[in-house]
Design goal:
247 residues; mainly alpha; Fic-like fold
């Protein structure tokens, strides 16, 4: 199979943005607090990522004092975060590497339990091309040799454009981007929090996602560089968490 993602690296600004993202994430993994204490950073990152991802969807992300989250989008996003933190992360990543579509179905079940009907959970829509495009995306995840930030951005953008489940697709798309980062070794401990940056630039983020869906080279390049910038900013967010943990 020809790797369609390799050509994207040569779009203006993409290669440099991908390298900057990689360097920033590598640096936060070398942070003194993360040499042994990375689980603390990862746990806080998972919560921040889940809340920001839900906020991008327009959810109220206030955490109740009693810990009982009833807002359905936030609750689903937090469940997805739990599947990508601590001991659960290894199992999720191993399944992702072997069967990415199975993992997407699992993520949707977690994200949409309080939103979709039981017969819709984990089941892609029957609209034309959905199954075919998901299968192609699964092949890209397993086979592409493009830089990890580019693969993560393409998976992210394609899932947003395709909206394969019809509910909670944004939550699933951003989680899938994180899984690419972990499985590829770009962010092996899942420390980055790019969702915070995408939330701060929500209008730009949503517009860029729409542009990516058109397939126009300039728009695709803009999406890739925005996603890479988010990964770089997410490393800075992780650094602030590690700094606080270190005291």
């Amino acid at each position: 199979m020809t790797d369609p993602l390799l050509a994207l690296v040569d779009l203006p600004g993409v290669r440099a943005a991908a390298e900057s993202a990689r360097d920033a994430l590598a640096e936060v993994h070398r942070h003194r607090a993360n040499r042994r204490g990375w689980p603390t950073t990862a746990a806080e990152a998972a919560v921040r990522a889940a809340r920001a991802s839900a906020a991008i969807e327009g959810a109220d992300i206030t955490l109740p004092e009693d810990g009982r989250v009833i807002e359905p989008v936030l609750a689903g996003s937090l469940r997805v975060g739990q599947a990508m933190d601590g001991a659960a992360l290894g199992n999720t990543v191993r399944t992702w590497e072997r069967a990415p579509l199975q993992t997407l179905a699992r993520l949707h079940l977690l994200a949409a339990t309080d939103i979709a009907g039981a017969d819709e959970l984990g089941r892609p829509r029957t609209a034309p091309d959905v199954g075919e495009r998901l299968n192609l995306l699964g092949q890209v995840v397993v086979q592409s040799r493009a830089p990890a930030p580019v693969v993560a951005a393409v998976v992210h953008g394609e899932l947003l454009a395709l909206a394969p489940f019809g509910t909670a697709d944004g939550i699933v798309a951003r989680a899938a981007s994180r899984l690419v980062a972990v499985a590829s070794g770009l962010d092996p401990h899942n420390l980055g929090v790019p969702e915070v940056s995408w939330l701060r630039r929500r209008d730009d983020y949503l517009a860029a996602a729409q542009g990516f869906a058109t397939g126009a080279p300039d728009a695709v390049g803009a999406w890739l560089t925005l996603c890479c910038a988010g990964l770089e900013a997410g490393a800075r967010e992780a650094t602030s968490i590690a700094d606080a943990a270190q005291g």
